[in-house]
Structure formats: structure tokens, C-alpha cells
Amino acid sequence: MTNTFDIIVIGSGHNGLTTACYLAKAGMNVAVFERRDEIGGAVCTREMFGGYQMDVGGSAHIMIHMTPVIRELELEKFGLDYIEMDPWGWHPTEEGEWIGFYRDVDKTCQTIAKISEKDADAYYEFVKFWGAINDGVFSAFLKPPTPGNLLRTMVSGKFGKKKEVVSTLRKIFSSYGQVIRESFESTPMQAAMLWLAAQSGPPPSELATADFAGWQSMIHKSGAKRPRGGSGMLTQAMGRRLESDGGTIFTGAPIKRIIIENNRAVGVELESGERYGAAKGVIAATHVVMTMFGLIGRENLPTELAKRIDNLRIGNGFGMILRCASDELPNYSAMPHNPAQLDVDNPHPSHTGLQLLCPTPEYLDHAYADYLRGIPSRDPACLLMTFSAIDETLAPKGKHTVFIWSQYHPYELANGESWDNIREREAEKLIDVATRYAPNLKGAITDYYIQTPLDIERLHGMHRGNVMHLEMSFDQMFLFRPTPELSDYTTPFENLYLTGASTHPGGGIFAASGYNTAQVVLKKSGNRKWFGR
Length: 533
Prior knowledge:
It is a single chain. It is globular, with a radius of gyration of 23 Å. Strand 3 and strand 4 (52-55) form a beta hairpin. The protein has 3 domains: 3-43 and 230-313 and 468-525, FAD/NAD(P)-binding domain; 121-220, no CATH class; 315-463. The mean pLDDT is 95. 34% of the residues lie in helices and 19% in strands. It is α/β, with parallel strands linked by helices and 533 residues long.
């Protein structure tokens, strides 16, 4: 072995770095190996087009603020500075109306009431109902899943009478499409809520997905924020924190295989041939298919586990995104602004958060129907993000960044088409959709960086372009993510652990998986120095 560490982490995404930071904080000698020349995985920011800071993965930081990770790792001391996104969501209609989702529920309801007073009242009750449930759900997310733990946490002592418990369970196991349609009467409110919930992946009709809509109740508690300088500033701060505790980061160091001896993970071999030892554990923060079949080898797995990995539902892509350099921010017809009156200290409400461009529930259904036929949505739903409106470090003076995320876009295309051939056509389609709402946008965009499902796979190692790694359906969550025998972050091989979006509780900029894996490793190693306590 070239060198031996206590712990080796494969991959420098935010979950892998979270685990690494906690273990280094507890006194372990930790090394992180990253195949690219930059750390961060899918939480990474690059300079493009001469001075524009462009994310190349996740952008909105919401769920991580519901965890103790930022506070316990003291990431502010290592350069992390968050900017509040408020409103965190904004939905315009083609008829000139709009809804603003503010951290303050009452302020949110005031905007909803302009469209439907009944929906404003319903939203207040919706947040109250799902907030009570998600207080319990969230506590289950910050620990390895155990049988029955989630259901008991959600309903025990919270709903009292049997009838209330039964009603709650019915909602939980409903589709988010059904719950939203039952809860709200107006088309704008239904469309906004459906498009927000759809960000997790499953279609509106999929059963047991209701909490993908209910989860936004938690945003009113924790808020949605954005790192100054770009999404990658989170992982940059984690990297500095790790090194301050004696950790080592190797970039440009792709792993060829995990070294297994006597059913125990003892190190890694790089593609260069170098070998590094791990005395206490190897942690794979990579896609579970890559870990099991690529780094260990199908032939070395128990037969039943190999079959389960084969049967994982990765899905056929998810979405695509444009990272645009622009001379102007989108000027929405539903809420026009005077650019001369705006700056980062006085942003327009339409620019601070997620801009939800989806006019009707049926519009989203049609987009998904195209996806099922293997064609990119002919009229896709779009989500815009304009973080330069609140962060002047992202673009040259007077210029802006505009991100356009869209669903649905299949990885495997019908009719013999390939993403490399249609990428420009589909990029223009997204710009055209956004320009229907903000007529100035098409003429303002000066350049863009395209990420199709195929590009996402190539850059981030996310199989078939699924940014959640695996489909976020009930049968692949909690005790079933990624498989029952791997759901507690351990593997059939001693001292080999998993973390990342392939594991509980799934994808998104959350860090819960990395947090949980650190708990498991410390407990297994007999180290009781946990998070400074």
C-alpha cells in the first residue's frame, strides 16, 4: 500500500464530505478520493463565459437547513455564507396573476387570496397538517431506518382519535396529485403545488407520494437559502473543514476497485495502479450500481444482492437544465419590474427563488405522457433560478445568471434519436417556454451551457441521468433504499459502507445520508466521540 488511513471515502459529493468531516472531527485519519479535478460532486460551481459562476449540479439549498450539519461542522468559519431566498417560490400565470411562497405562511396566504380566498385558507391548514407529520418524518430521516420506525413517528400521539389516524394514513399513501387536487380549487394553486412536488421525480399519479407536496410545510420553518458565490461553496467549505482536522483530499484520482480481503474492505486501488489502505473503513459515496458492480464486481456479490441491484428502478432520465449568461433578468408579464430600481439588497419578488412555470395540472400530465413515449416533452414545465439577483458575485457587473430546469426528458429516446444530436433543439425549446412568461428573456441570453440527461450521467456518474440516483418511489425509500440489506449504510463486506443519494433518505442537497453514515461508522468502530458530545 502507498499509504494507509483510518477511513477512505470514495467521491467528494456533499454526502461523502459530510461523513468525512464528522469522522475527521472525531479524530480519525480520513482521505477522500475524487475522480474529477474539483471537489463537490453534484454540488459544484464553475466559472464560465468569462466571469459567470455557474452551478453544474444542485442549486437550491433547502433540506440541509433542517439538519444540524452546517452548525455542528461550523462551516461559516470556513467561508460558507448563506443568503435567504424569500420568497422561495414564485408562480406566474399567463393571465397575469401570481402566487408568492414566502417563509412567512401568512404572507404566502395573502398572495394566494388574490386568486382564491378558499385556497388561502386551505393552504394555511395544509401547512399545519403536513408540518405536524413532517416533524416526525424528519426525525426519521436523521437516523438509519428501522422497521416500523417511520410510521410510528408519523402518527404516534399526533392525531389522537382512531378516525383521525385512519384519515391521515389515507392521505400519506395517496398520490401527491390527488392530495393537491382535493386540497385546492384554483388552477394556479394546483399547478404551482404540483410542479413543486414533481421536483422529487415521481409523477403526480404515483401512490404514496403525498408528502412530496406536504414537505414544503418544512420550508416555512427552515427557509430556503443559497450559498454566496454558488452552490459549490458548501462543498468548498466542507473541504476546508476536513483539511483543518487533518483530512486529505486527492483530486484527479479515479478509483479502479475496492480491495476486499477475507470479506473485508481493506483499501482501494486507483486507475493509476496505486493502492491505499483503510484500517477502519471504506465509504463509497458513489451510485450504488457503480459501487457494487463497478468497484466490487458482480462476481463478488451474494447472488440475491446482485439480483436486487439489477432490479433497482433507476428510471429513464429525469430532466435537463440550461445555465445561461444573460444581459437581463427575466421581466415577467405577470409582475413587471423596472431594472433600474433593483439590486441585490432590493430584489424583485419574482427573482429570489424558484420560478415555477407550469400553467395547469394537465400541462404537467401532458409533459409526462410525452416522456413515457420516449420523447422530450413537447411543451415542458420549466423552473427558473436567477441567483445573481441576490448575489452580485455570480456575474459581471450588470449581467446575470439564469438557470432553466425542465421536466420531463427521457435518457433513452425513441425513434433512434440521440441527445448529442437534439441538445440544441431542446435548449431552444426551454428558452421559448420561459420567454412566453418573460418576453425579454430570449433576446437577453448571450450564451448557455446545456446539461441533458446524458450530460448529467457523463459528468456526475448519475446513471441514466437520474439526479436522485434511484426513483424516489415508496418501494425504494426508507428500509428499501437501495435494498433491504443495504439500507442501514452497511454492506455484506466488513468495513465497507455506503452513503449518498442511493441511500436513505434519497437525493437533494440534504446531507442526511452523510450524517447518518458517520453515526454508523463511529458506532461500529467503537468511537463514542460523536459530534462533539
